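Section: protein folds

Sequence with per-residue tokens
===
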Amino acid sequence: MRTTLYSQILTRPSLSVASRTNGTVNGSTVDKADPSGGYDGFTAALLVVVAGTITDGTHTVTVQDSDDGSAWAAADTAFVQGGPVALTSANSNTVAELGYTGPKRYVRASVVTSGATTGGTLGAVVVLGGQTSLPVKR
């Protein structure tokens, strides 16, 4: 079997695409150990943030991690590449990425919006890689 990107990664939703105004929204939990219910384990994650139209405010997206999927904290900066991402009207219709190489089993996106009247539209997915078996199970 030929190794392709499709056979090496899995993508999972974390932050639904929606209009954001002031406040904090935490994305859904993504399990790095076995997200498909198969045999895969992943050592790395890439949080892909897609921004639509942002009219005002600052939308700061970070990676949170957890050992148990219940107690969450901002991921240690030693394990995060490229973050945090601060989106403003200058970043409308762009894509931003945050890498995560930490040891914790669970990850998710978190966005804090401040200074918004009408806000902005954004969402995020987690791309899992560095799997322990090929091809990944879907």
About this structure: The chain has a mean pLDDT of 92. The two ends are 16 Å apart (CA to CA).
